[in-house]
TrEMBL record:
It comes from the Bacteria. Phosphorylase is an important allosteric enzyme in carbohydrate metabolism. Enzymes from different sources differ in their regulatory mechanisms and in their natural substrates. However, all known phosphorylases share catalytic and structural properties. Pfam families: DUF3417, Phosphorylase. It comes from Streptomyces griseoincarnatus. InterPro entries: Agluc_phsphrylas (IPR011834), Glyco_trans_35 (IPR000811), Glycogen/Maltodextrin_Phosph (IPR052182), Glycogen_phosphorylase_DUF3417 (IPR024517), Pyridoxal_P_attach_site (IPR035090). This is glycogen phosphorylase. Its cofactor is pyridoxal 5'-phosphate. NCBIfam families: more_P_ylases. Gene3D superfamilies: Glycogen Phosphorylase B. Belongs to the glycogen phosphorylase family. Residues 13-120 form the DUF3417 domain.
Length: 872
């Protein structure tokens, strides 16, 4: 019989055990070993059955056991120590509090998904895991972030396989009362509510749940409440589910509702109001519109409000291809804004212009969330050096007249939260070497000094550690594989072979990620005979563990999974290659440490960052990867191997896959397996162990989320906070009026004449040219512009590369025709082909970049030819 109503019955803890509730409700337990050890000791069997979730554990422990623990002096002493440690962690000064300068009072960090722990399944893949690691690292550093997301009643989805290997999706219902969440409540105890206006006099209401992530509050908006109609209740049903309008409503609730939730949270708790708003991908881009509406209510017009919002906004793009960006029909967007819907005091046509693809090749009838995100943010970044370059090229149309290198999108390479992803066995070895305190600091803050101590760990200890991690993975794989086959309909009598799956002494390769086509799950199957030879080699075998989910609507991705599963089902190789369904954080925390090699073979340059390989590296795994994302930036032969790519535009996709698969097989056959199995005089694989050691000592400090968050604070958050403070109402009006004047007058800005002191086509290194430039400024003044010389090496087509800019100074007063003369020196500081040009850019003290307005004036061809300088 089915229950007509569901309740969550919470355990009543004896008074001495009350701190257990606080420990369970702060998600720091998910990365703090001491807290997890304490909960495990409550009841090891129930802890395992609860999947390492303290809330579920406490809900299952019998009253007799709780009474016993309440009288156990040793347990109570441990409980007090762990509770005191959490209190110190929450209230003490950390890295952020020890910095000089006026750092942001608070930063609001918006993301559509957050991967904090398997006990709070609100993530689908890398974007969410990155967001979770960002919050956890910020907490460890003491950075005052407020996380903002949605609470999805079904999460993403749970994955299983049919008998023939086809992905099947399941959507279990999540009860917020059974999760480590608290409702945000008003002073009178009533639940706090957020409301959005919808067309047709309807409303979308949401309550706000708070997950405490260490020191960081994470606000999650939930529309599944009785005040909503059925459609509105379903807005937060699934992560990345539904059609266009469903997604639009999710993103409006995240952005607009999220700002309102932050304001409510700060009002009720006294938390400092954010000075910086960080948009993690375009899904939350509407937050800028809500902040503009706030400023309109204070008397600013649209343009001034836009400038004020841009000053304090950071936008991070994770998308390397236009197809990965959310785009909505402009009429759908228009219907949800304006006098009869949301943000009635913002002009709908101005809202639409923020998201329109008004550049060559753009779709004029589509509203692009990333384009809006970039236009609403004064600072933007990609998530690796290569991805920053890809992003500058992809969005260059927003800054016409500028080379992609000057498009104002920088990069902060992602990192991973080491305390979450480093296996306890690895941590214990490090703590034994340098002490617990220094080991914790090495993982959370990181610097080379702490990681250099890896050099002193004995070879035998490193090799024993790697084997023990491999053995733990083998046991985990067998357990999960048996459960998967039972779901697929197999009986126990059919599954005896699973006891022989994988071998703790065989080289183990891991491949786990989402399954879009560009990540090429099945590249390893390109030549099945060669793969079989690798798996079954009599002296140097390999074994492969594969996991990954395809989006429910992606049948192409599901076919790739089925192809891999059918190969792995072959009795000849099923002991050497396995596919594990339902890839998630709990599986990943066992998978990364147990793999000797982490394989990554996307189509370059379509991997924005690819942090899974970082997590493997922190556990001593070596990377075998295409030079894409972070691996392109930090690869060294000491850390692993790079898979050669066939990037030529003329290479058809099939041929490219053949070439790159062959290169992968060659590396495995000739270098990887030989390095793993060859033994030195000590009987150990000396070269392999040295690569593990150098991976940990040299790569370890770089891949930390602590390093990433420190970069965000130094390079993006702090400048954005300073810009926000400078952009009061008067400054915002001034900047908006100035921009309008400059745009209106720019047609009159010209470069009329350029001359130099050198007439020949050659010059000596170290010499200096005197440049003299005549420019027309129309109605603008010299203080409105900067005239620059741009110089550097030139390629075969005379394009300047590795350019340096030199500002030129106005001389005297304007001529009879209103033209100005600018002069300045140009140093010839490099040999070889060299060239220069001159240009005029808008200039204002409140601009973050000279490219911000997308305006530039350069010499016309006849002037350039007359003054052209090209030295070879």
């Amino acid at each position: 019989m089915k229950a007509i109503r569901r309740f969550t019955v919470r355990p009543v803890l004896p008074e001495p055990l009350r701190p257990l509730s606080d420990l369970a409700r702060n998600l720091r337990w998910s990365w703090h070993a001491g807290t997890r050890d304490l909960f495990r000791s409550v009841d090891p069997g129930r802890w395992a059955a609860a999947g390492g979730d303290p809330m579920r554990l406490l809900g299952s422990v019998p009253t007799e056991r709780l009474t016993e623990l309440a009288g156990d002096r040793d347990f109570l002493d441990r409980l007090a120590a762990v509770a005191d440690d959490l209190d110190t962690y929450m209230t003490g000064d950390r890295w952020y509090q020890r910095q000089s300068g006026r750092l942001p009072a608070a930063v609001a960090y918006f993301s559509p998904e957050f991967g904090i722990t398997a006990a709070l399944p609100q993530y689908s893949g890398g974007l969410g895991i990155l967001a979770g690691d960002h919050l956890k690292a910020a907490s460890d550093l003491g950075a005052p972030l407020i996380g903002v997301g949605l609470l999805y009643r079904h999460g993403y989805f749970r994955q299983s396989l049919s008998r023939d290997g086809w992905q099947q999706e399941h959507y279990p219902v999540l009860d917020p009362h059974e999760l480590p969440l608290d409702q945000l409540k008003e002073a009178d105890g009533a639940p706090a509510r957020i409301a959005l206006a919808l067309p047709g006099d309807r409303s979308l209401r949401a309550r706000v749940w708070v997950a405490q992530v260490g020191r960081i509050p994470l606000l999650l908006l939930d529309s599944d409440i009785e005040e909503n109609d059925l459609v509105e209740r379903g807005v937060t049903d699934r992560l990345y589910g539904g059609g266009s309008e469903h997604r639009l409503l999710q993103e409006m609730l995240l952005g607009i509702g999220g700002v309102r939730a932050v304001r409510t949270y700060c009002r009720l708790t006294g938390h400092a109001a954010p000075e910086v708003f960080h948009t993690n991908e375009g899904h939350a881009g509407f937050l800028g519109l809500e902040r503009m509406a706030e400023l309109r209510a204070e008397g600013l017009d649209f343009d001034a409000a836009l400038e004020a919002v841009r000053a304090g906004t950071v936008f991070t793009t994770h998308t390397p291809v236009p197809a990965g960006i959310d785009r909505f029909d402009r009429e759908l967007v228009a219907r949800h804004f304006g006098p009869h819907a949301e943000l009635p005091h913002l002009e709908v046509d101005r809202i639409l212009r923020l998201g329109m693809e008004t550049y060559p090749g753009g779709e004029p009838n589509l509203f692009n969330m990333a384009v809006m995100g970039l236009r609403l943010a004064q600072r933007a970044n990609g998530v690796s050096l290569l991805h920053g370059q890809v992003s500058r090229e992809m969005f260059a149309g927003l800054w016409p007249g500028f080379d992609p290198e000057e498009v104002p999108i920088t990069s902060v390479t992602n990192g991973v939260h080491a305390p979450t992803w480093v296996a306890p066995e690895v941590y214990r070895l490090g703590a034994r070497q340098i002490g617990t305190q220094r080991a914790e600091e090495a993982l959370s803050i990181g610097d080379s000094d702490r990681w250099d101590s890896v050099a002193d760990i004995a070879d035998q200890d490193i090799w024993d550690l790697r084997r023990s991690l491999r053995e733990l993975l083998v046991l985990e794989v067998r357990e999960r594989l048996r459960a998967s086959w039972r779901q697929r309909g197999a009986g126990t009598a059919e599954l005896g072979w699973i006891d022989g799956v994988l071998d703790p002494d065989v080289l183990t390769i891991g491949f786990a990620r989402r399954v879009p086509s560009y990540k090429r799950l099945t590249l390893m199957l390109r030549d099945r005979d060669r793969l079989m030879d690798l798996l079954l080699h009599p002296e140097r075998p390999v074994q492969i563990v594969v996991a990954g989910k395809a989006h429910p609507a992606d049948d192409g991705g599901k076919r790739l999974i089925q192809e891999l599963v059918r190969f792995a089902d072959d009795p000849r190789v099923r002991h050497r290659i396995v596919f594990l369904p339902d890839y998630g954080m709990a599986m990943a925390q066992k998978l990364y440490p147990g793999c000797d090699i982490w394989l990554n073979n996307p189509l370059r340059p379509l991997e924005a960052c690819g942090t899974s390989g970082m997590k493997a590296a922190l556990n001593g795994g070596l990377n075998l990867s295409v030079l894409d994302g972070w691996w392109d930036e930090w690869f060294q032969p000491d850390f692993g191997w790079s898979i050669p790519t066939a990037d030529g535009a003329g290479t058809d996709p099939d041929r490219r896959d053949d070439i790159e698969a062959a290169a992968l097989y060659d590396l495995l056959e000739q270098r990887v397996t030989r390095t793993f199995y060859e033994r030195g005089r000590s009987g150990l694989p000396d070269r392999w162990i040295e690569m593990v050691r150098r991976t940990l000592s040299l790569l370890g400090p770089k891949v930390l989320a602590g390093r990433m968050v420190r970069e965000y604070v130094d390079r993006l958050y702090t400048p954005a906070a300073h810009a926000h403070r400078a952009m009061d109402a008067d400054a915002a009006r001034e900047l908006a009026e100035w921009k309008a004047a400059v745009r209106g007058a720019w047609h009159g800005v010209t470069v009329d004449h350029v001359e130099t002191s050198v007439a020949s086509a050659t010059a000596e290194l170290g010499s200096t040219l005197a440049l003299r430039v005549r420019v027309g400024l129309g109605s603008l003044r010299p203080e409105d512009v900067e005239v620059q010389a741009v110089a550097g090496r030139v390629d075969e087509e005379d394009r300047i590369t590795d350019a340096a800019t030199v500002p030129l100074k106005p001389m005297g007063s304007p001529g009879a025709g209103g033209e100005w003369v600018y002069e300045g020196p140009l140093s010839l500081d490099r040999t070889g082909p060299f060239g220069y040009t001159v240009r005029v850019l808008p200039s204002h003290r409140l601009l973050a970049s000279g490219a911000e307005l997308g305006l530039v004036a350069v010499p016309p061809e006849d002037v350039a030819e007359a003054a052209g300088l090209l030295m070879r």
